[in-house]
Amino acid sequence: MKINNSLKLYFLLIASAQALLISSCTQLDVFEKNTVIPKYEWQQSFIASGNFVIRDTISAYSTYLVLRHTDAYQYNNIWLNIALQPPGDSLRNQKINLVLGDDVYGWEGTGMNDIWELRKLLSGAPRRFKQPGKYNFNISQIMRDNPLINIMSVGLRIEKKKD
User: Fold this and answer.
1) Which of 161, 154, 149 shows the shortest CA–CA distance to 109?
2) Torsion of CA 45, 48, 51, 57, to 10 degrees
3) pTM for this prediction
4) Is the bond preceding 147 in cis, omega lying within 30 degrees of 0?
5) Who contacts 131 (Cβ-Cβ below 8 Å, separation ≥6)?
6) What is the CATH number of domain 29-160?
7) I want to staple 60 with a disulfide (CB 3.0 to 4.6 A). Which of 55, 141, 158, 161 is the partner?
8) Domain spans of the chain?
9) Distance from first CA to last CA of the chain, Å, rounded?
């Protein structure tokens, strides 16, 4: 019995949809919160903040900074102050110089039209959080420009390392 190509395509699409449904039902061990920068003008006084809960202190996690900017952003880098507050502890600040691209190879990350998104690993290797509970974070820009224009959003992404 011959099966025409459209029927084969139909069965392939059904099988693909089922695989997608099954995989989407599994829990992802990922936290991500991005904050939109008003009018794409990041004032030094504007702090992107959020919190996440860690329950598993045995597993290791990778921490990423997620930044979205336009193609019109005028620098190859951005200086940020990232603060993390573990449960019941004080805020710990870290100043980082995040490279966004260079003049030879262009922007790092993924781009669509004139919008670029960069996900940059903050800690070299996955690390464990020492205590369970709610962690607070703040991200602010510490560039000389105030406001810093053409930054669309900034955030934090925490991924549990898969064994």
Assistant:
1) 154
2) -100
3) 0.79
4) yes
5) 54, 57, 86, 87, 88
6) 2.60.120.380
7) 161
8) 29-160
9) 46
